């Protein structure tokens, strides 16, 4: 089912919801907390997203849409530079590094991933993006000239999720270095020893 576009009011509320969840976890996600964070009158959030499930579902759609743009742009650049040695891996790593610039959004994505194990509505939204990411990582792995499979791409992506989560917990000035070093180790093991993420 195509995603319903976000109104300006929804974007304001959902941006506020991201900050609420990043600060307090999903347990802190209430209509009242979102209204306060968005500096809107009480009842604003519930008027747009009536139930907590509606709020949680729309938040998942909003968060995945932010990452989907990056993935689509990265995929497009890789396709435009097909045949350029190492380009796909460098672009994929650069995309992952850029996600550290918005740690709140990254944290909320992780929170929603865990929630997806309990709520099928959330899991279904996240699954579409997981497939998109696996395809991107698999494509980047294939450009190294090594023989790969979707299973290896899924394994690498699962490991990358763990690295991103740990990176968010690092001191901000150390995050990029930690990510670069961790990805180098992962890619050497699962992609190919000649693969080197950019400095």
Explain this structure to me?
This protein has helices at 8-24, 31-38, 44-48, 52-80, 87-98, 103-115, 120-142, 150-169, 175-190. By secondary structure, it is an all-alpha fold. The longest helix has 29 residues, at 52-80. It starts with 7 loop residues before the first helix and ends in a 9-residue tail after the last helix.
CATH superfamily of the domain at 59-190: Tetracycline Repressor, domain 2
Per DSSP E runs of 2 or more residues, the count of β-strands stands at: 0
SS-based class: mainly alpha
Shape: elongated
Output the CATH topology of the domain at 59-190.
Tetracycline Repressor, domain 2
Kindly report the average pLDDT value: 87
Top keywords for this entry?
elongated, 199 residues, Tetracycline Repressor, domain 2, single chain, mainly alpha
Topology:
Layout: H1 8-24, H2 31-38, H3 44-48, H4 52-80, H5 87-98, H6 103-115, H7 120-142, H8 150-169, H9 175-190
Helix pairs in contact: 1-2, 1-4, 1-6, 4-5, 4-7, 5-7, 6-8, 7-8, 8-9
Question: What is shown here, in short?
Answer:
72% of the residues lie in helices and 0% in strands. By secondary structure, the protein is mostly helical.
């Amino acid at each position: 089912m195509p995603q319903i576009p976000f109104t300006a009011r929804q974007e304001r509320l959902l941006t506020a919801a991201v900050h609420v969840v990043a600060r307090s976890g999903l347990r802190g996600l209430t209509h009242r907390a979102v209204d306060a964070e968005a500096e809107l009158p009480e009842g604003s959030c519930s008027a747009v997203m009536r139930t907590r499930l509606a709020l949680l579902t729309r938040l998942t759609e909003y968060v995945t849409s932010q990452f989907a743009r990056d993935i689509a742009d990265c995929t497009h650049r890789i396709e435009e530079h097909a045949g350029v040695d190492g380009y796909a891996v460098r672009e994929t790593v650069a995309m992952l590094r850029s996600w550290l610039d918005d740690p709140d959004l990254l944290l909320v994505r992780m929170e929603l991933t865990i929630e997806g194990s309990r709520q099928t509505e959330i899991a279904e939204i996240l699954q579409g993006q997981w497939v998109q990411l696996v395809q991107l990582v698999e494509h980047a792995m294939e450009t190294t000239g090594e023989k790969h499979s979707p299973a290896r791409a899924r394994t690498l992506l699962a490991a990358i999720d763990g690295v991103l989560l740990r990176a968010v917990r690092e001191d901000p000035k150390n995050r990029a270095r930690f990510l670069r070093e961790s990805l180098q180790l992962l890619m050497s093991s699962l992609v190919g020893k000649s693969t080197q993420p950019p400095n």
